[in-house]
Each structure stands twice: as structure tokens, then as C-alpha cells.
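Structure request: Lysyl oxidase, Saccharothrix longispora.
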Amino acid sequence: MRRYAALSATAVLVAAVVGPSNAQAVDSVLLPDLRQAPVGCPGGFSGDPARCADWDVCVVADPDAPNGECLGRGEPGRAARLRFTTSADNIGDGPLLIYGSRGSAAEPTMTARQAFQSAVDGSIPGSYAAAQHRAPATLYYEPAPAHTHWHLLGFEHFQLRTPAGDAVVVDRKTGFCLGDRYEVDDELARRPDDRTTPEGRLAGYLRLNRCGHHAPEALEVAEGISVGYGDDYKHTVDFQWLDLTGVPSGTYDVVNVVNSDRTLVEKSYDNNASSVAITLRWPGGAERAPAVITAPPLVRVVRSCPGQERCARRG
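Returned structure:
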């Protein structure tokens, strides 16, 4: 049986809980808590975020390439990109669990709904039919050569902003395939250490989850993040960048936000953003990029501000 068919392909979980629709229902389920990790840090990093080095500046020949080869100094390029790793942790009480489904392969997208673990008996819905949530999201099959799997759209967004908070550049990334890619360092009571429990079996599935890899015909997909784990996209992955080409020299914030529209129900939204303040300087003291870029702009991280949408000091 293919792994993308349903969560029950690898573990039979008890279908019991549906999505919360009021305060009483929310009290009956264990909610996830998504925390945006420091910008440019590897997944699971617990040290000084100012020392993180999972980012670079990459000059490419093709401005439209999702992941163009970085050119060497002196080679003519047409775009400069700030690439950085982005990671989201689940430090809540229950897993983030998304079920996607569509009626037929003729439909280009799946409707994605959030499911929840019961706070009463620990059970987890085992199929899309048992998962309900007031605000459906969307799953889209990404056909790019490096992906070819189903992405949850809008899970994370990143921008380059002025110190006043105005967006200068926005991301071009479409979505994310969610799974347990790394373990977070926090002490969390509900981390699924026992693989025989429903949440433990779910974690075993999510650890290997590839979101319907090479399966554009799939009618159902399950993905998510267990308590105590996170999902990261390294700075070398397609569209994991912001285009600096049209940005003048100056000071900016790189802002990364998970679940920015709050489509997904969480225990708290207070930790959904992280940012770094950077200075950008084009070579030769130029205000803007030349028509042909033979050297990358100098980018320096001034400070890192985990948990905050603003980091650069105004004035």
C-alpha cells in the first residue's frame, strides 16, 4: 500500500475527535502550538541565534529559476537572492495534523482540514472523513523537479520589510510538505516517546512522511508535526529566498511567520513570528544593483529577534 493513501496505511488510529467549533470543543482537544524558529538557523538549533549561518547571498543567471546555481564572483548574473533556512516547531499539547482530500484526480487541489487529538482518551482521527475544521486550507501538487509532492499552501510566509514595517519583497514559495524532520530541545510532557500510543504511531508515520511523493493521482494525503518536533526547509531548497535585485542599500528586517492567517487552530499565536535585522550594501557604495551583477551585495546580520516581527531599530 502506498504511503500517501491515508494515515492508516502505516498505523490504524482511533477516529474520535472532530475539529473544534466553539470554546467547549476546544477544551476537549489537545492543541498544537507552532513556534517560528529563528531565521537562518538549522532546525532544532538551541544556541545563540545571532550565530546561525544557514543563510547566504546567491547571484543567479536566471531570475525565474526556483533554485538557480550560485555564480562565482565576476560571473555575470541578473538577480541576487538572500537565501535562508526556515523552521517551525510544535511545542503544544497535541500534534498538528492535516488531512487532504479531493473527489477525483480531475480536481487540481485538495481541501485540507485540521484534525485534533482528544484530551479525554488520547484518540486521533484516522481518516479525512473524521477531520473537520471551520477554515479549510489547500493542498497543491508541486510539479517542480525537486519536489513532486503535495504542499500545504500558506503554511509559512517571509518578507523583507523596512524598519517601519512596510513590505519591500515578498516570498514566492507556494507551500510546505510537513513531517517530523527534527526534534526540538524543549522539555515537553506530551512528546510521543511511546510508539504504541496513537500519537506515537502518528509520529512514526510523520517521521517518514513525503506527502504523496510522485503521486499526482492521490485522492488523500496526511501530513503534520508531532509535539516536540519540527519541520525545516533548508536555504538551498527551491524558492527558499527573497529577491534583493530591486532593493536599495539600507537596513531591513527579514520576517518569517508561520500560520500568518491563523487558518490553523493553535494553543497560542504569540510565537508565530521571528525576524532578523540586516544591512544591505551594494558594491562600490552604489544605492542599487547594476544591470549586470558580477558581485553579490554585502549582507550583514545586525541582530536576531526570535518571537518578534520587528528587529531593526528605527531612526
